[in-house]
C-alpha cells in the first residue's frame, strides 16, 4: 500500500477543492499550503512530461504523484538502491492501477545508473534521497534534461549542508532555480540552455 496522501486529497487535491467550494471546509481563508507531492505533480503537468526520472522510489508515493501529472502514456524511470523497497513500490503502483508499462524501476546506486540514461532524453528529474551528493546529482540530472526541463530536489534548504548544490546552481548561467518552502523544502531548477 502507498501510505500517504491519495492523489485527490490534501491542499488543492480535487477533494480539497470540492470541500472548499461547497463550504464544507472551514479553511477558506487559510493560504493554500501545497505539499511536495503536489509540486511534483504540478511540475510534471506543466512540463507535459512524457519521460521523467526519479531518484529514490521508496514506497512509490512520489512515483504515483509524478505519474498523475505526466501525459497519460508518459513513462517514469525510478531508481532505488533498495530492491525490497522497489518490489513493494511495484506492487503498490499496480494496486493503484498504474499499468506496468508506465514505470521502469531500476534497482541500483543512482550515481551509477544516471550516467547510463539517455542524455537530453527527459523532461523532469526528481531527487528525493537524503544525500550529501546533491551537487553530483545536479550534474548527472541536468545532463539528462532536455532544454526547458526541470530537476527538483526534496529536503533542500539554504543551509551550509547544501552549500555545494547552491554554488553549483549559481555557477551555471543556463540554470534558473527556485526554492519552495513546502514540506522539508524543495529546490527546483530549470535548464534553459
Ligand atoms: C526518502 S526515500 C524516498 C521516498 C519516495 N520518494 C516515496 O515517495 O516514498 C529515499 C529513498 O532513496 C533510496 N536511496 C538512498 N540512497 C540511494 C542511492 N544512492 N541510490 C538510489 N537510491 C537511494 C532509499 O533506499 C530510499 O528508498
TrEMBL record:
Q: What is its EC number?
A: 2.1.1.-
Tell me a Gene Ontology molecular-function term this record carries.
methyltransferase activity
Q: Which UniProt keywords apply?
A: Methyltransferase, S-adenosyl-L-methionine, Transferase
CDD domains for this protein: AdoMet_MTases
Query: What is the top EC class of this enzyme, as a single word?
Result: transferase
Q: Where is the signal peptide?
A: none
Locate the coiled-coil region(s) and give their ranges: none
Q: What is this protein called?
A: O-methyltransferase
- Organism equals Saccharopolyspora rosea
Upper classification of the source organism reads: Bacteria, Bacillati, Actinomycetota, Actinomycetes, Pseudonocardiales
